[in-house]
């Protein structure tokens, strides 16, 4: 499988992938569809790519005009690939990598917050950590009012996830592409 940036200044740039059969990067077609759904949200944004994997979503955002990107993951294989892919951009002041587990290490984000755009791509069956992140992000002001969050999941899990209360986040859009699904949320004003 080849993974490339699909839009913006770095369009066509090939990214590295870990040699791991369990690794499931967001395909170019799905990435393009997601970025079409969020429009100009990356422009000038401070981005958090949580469960970053290869970093393709955050790097795509940077290519499309994001001001800075923080990549977070806990997997040594992902962290190694993130380092290689970030180096392709040669912008160490704009692209940072953090080894962390969430929500346990949410305090590590505070000094790097707030974020305008968040990509969340946890293991598909995992809903507890992402739901905790949504709550913590709003309560601890890790994100700005009106922030956009893209939660990627398996299409089969999307229906279950949508049954949850995301308040003060609201669902803006959903998309399904084969076995992949995404939920686009926006942070509303606190009640």
Structure description:
This protein is of the alpha/beta class and 191 residues long. It has one domain (3-20, 27-187): 3-Layer(aba) Sandwich (Rossmann fold). Helix content is 30%, strand content 29%. It is built from 6 helices and 9 strands; from the N terminus they run ββαβαβαβαβαβαββ. Helix 3 (76-89) links the parallel strand 4 (68-73) and strand 5.
Which helices and strands occur, and which strands form pairs?
Layout: E1 3-4, E2 14-15, H1 28-38, E3 46-50, H2 56-63, E4 68-73, H3 76-89, E5 95-99, H4 107-110, E6 115-120, H5 128-139, E7 143-154, H6 155-162, E8 169-177, E9 180-187
Parallel strand pairs: 3-4, 3-6, 4-5, 6-7
Antiparallel strand pairs: 1-2, 7-9, 8-9
Radius of gyration: 15 Å
Order of helices and strands: EEHEHEHEHEHEHEE
The proportion of residues in beta strands is: 25-35%
Q: How many domains, as an integer? A: 1
Stretches where pLDDT falls below 50 for ≥5 residues? none
Instruction: Let me know the number of strands.
Output: 9
Measured distance between first and last alpha carbons: 46 Å
**Shape-level CATH architecture:** 3-Layer(aba) Sandwich
Structural class: alpha/beta
Share of helix among residues?
25-40%
CATH homologous superfamily caption: Vaccinia Virus protein VP39
Spatially, the strands of the biggest sheet line up as 5-4-3-6-7-9-8
**How is the CATH topology named?**
Rossmann fold
What is the mean pLDDT? 90
Task: Give a short account of the largest sheet.
Answer: 7 strands, mixed
How would you describe the shape? globular
Question: Given this structure, which CATH class is correct?
Answer: Alpha Beta
